[in-house]
């Protein structure tokens, strides 16, 4: 695989150029509405997690509507200690601010998704994202690569461990709520998923001299069941989702977690809850850090639409496969909107 030379965007930034290298410059149609237009900054639904579990069916109903209409929502009162959130954001920033040679001790090798670098680059022709990433497999333990867990900054790895344990509890609770919102038994997903796979990725987007020409992160849907994203306060607005063919910016609520439905829930619900294409854009003066958790079934679990979502008016839309097969397919293809899910989609027959 020849991925060519991949410039580190933080190093490019140091040159203080007013232009960006060609490999970052996108076609005009790809870039559509990168410059944020205030008419497309709707607020995604807000779910108060503390209300669920006290028999508040109204909030479950709101959740059902958020999942079905948006595929994205922001969660408040999620129970993760604000000091822990602040700590991981600070250590995450300290990590990215280190000299390149320190970060390269944890280099992401071509074709892999763990460590520091740019994931999902498979050819020297591919456009690059204006982003540096640092990703780690968390659970089950066998997906961990101990060599990639940083010794600097001090306590970073320990903090990742604590943070991911707390976020895992939020994923578990959310999946119980989502099951209820679908009229299913609360425990159905945890029973189906086995020992869930969990990964973390930190995305650092330095300011960019030409935000109108580049993307921070290419459009994609997540292969997970659920994704949870937190973004450092004071950073630029960067996350956009595709709604009714328009890119809509998500305005972060301080302290809230942004949650989105991944491809796995789309398949399990036979398309009732769909994963939504999203991307990140950059800003000329502000940087941005997002910390993202992917939560998915164990690799050996067989997935396919659940019988509850199949009937005459809702025929089967996806085939059965092992999550490990999808995971492999996902990480060996570039981010390309929702195209990755074609792996599971059955051809639709138009009646004659
Ligand atoms: C944009 O998506 C990702 O970077 C990503 C990667 C996740 C992973 C790691 C960073 C290390 C361990 C393996 C794993 C693939 C989970 C997305 O994760 C999604 C994609 C699939 C498939 C999934 O299960 O989670
Ligand atoms: O940084 C963001 O806002 C988007 C991150 C994202 O979509 C991802 O990491 O999968
Ligand atoms: Fe994503």
UniProtKB/TrEMBL annotation:
One of its GO terms (molecular function) is metal ion binding. InterPro entries: DIOX_N, IPNS-like_FE2OG_OXY, IPNS-like_sf, Oxoglu/Fe-dep_dioxygenase_dom, Plant_2OG-oxidoreductases. Keywords: Iron, Metal-binding, Oxidoreductase. Residues 195-297 form the Fe2OG dioxygenase domain. The keyword Nucleotide-binding does not apply. Belongs to the iron/ascorbate-dependent oxidoreductase family. This is Protein SRG1. It comes from Spinacia oleracea.
């Amino acid at each position: 695989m020849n991925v060519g030379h991949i410039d580190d965007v933080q190093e490019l930034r140091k040159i203080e150029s007013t232009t960006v290298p060609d490999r970052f410059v996108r076609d005009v149609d790809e870039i559509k509405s990168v410059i944020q237009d205030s008419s497309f900054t709707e607020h995604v639904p807000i779910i108060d997690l503390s209300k669920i579990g006290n028999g508040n069916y109204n909030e479950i109903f709101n959740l059902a509507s958020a999942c079905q209409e948006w595929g994205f929502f922001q969660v408040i009162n999620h129970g993760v200690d604000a000091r822990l959130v602040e700590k991981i954001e600070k250590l995450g920033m300290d990590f990215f601010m280190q000299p390149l040679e320190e970060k390269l001790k944890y280099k992401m090798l071509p074709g892999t998704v763990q460590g520091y670098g740019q994931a999902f680059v498979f050819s020297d022709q591919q456009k690059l994202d204006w982003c540096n990433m640092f990703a780690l497999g968390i659970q089950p333990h066998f997906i961990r690569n101990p060599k990639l867990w940083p010794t600097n900054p001090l306590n970073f790895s320990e903090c990742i461990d604590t943070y991911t344990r707390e976020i895992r509890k939020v994923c578990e609770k959310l999946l119980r709520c989502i099951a209820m919102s679908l009229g299913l038994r609360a425990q159905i997903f945890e029973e189906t998923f086995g020992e869930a796979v969990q990964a973390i990725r930190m995305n650092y987007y330095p300011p960019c001299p030409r935000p109108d020409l580049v993307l921070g992160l290419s459009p994609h849907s997540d292969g997970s069941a659920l994704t949870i994203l937190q973004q450092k306060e004071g950073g630029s607005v960067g996350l956009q989702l595709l709604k009714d063919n328009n890119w809509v910016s998500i305005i972060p609520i301080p302290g809230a977690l942004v949650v989105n439905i991944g491809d796995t829930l789309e398949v399990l619900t036979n398309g009732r809850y769909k994963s939504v294409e999203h991307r990140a854009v950059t800003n000329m003066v502000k940087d941005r850090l997002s910390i993202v958790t992917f939560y998915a079934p164990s690799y050996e679990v067989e997935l396919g639409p659940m019988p509850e979502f199949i009937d005459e008016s809702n025929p089967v839309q996806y085939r059965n496969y092992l999550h490990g097969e999808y995971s492999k397919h996902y990480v060996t293809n570039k981010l390309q909107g929702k195209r990755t899910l074609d792996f599971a989609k059955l051809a639709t027959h138009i009646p004659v």
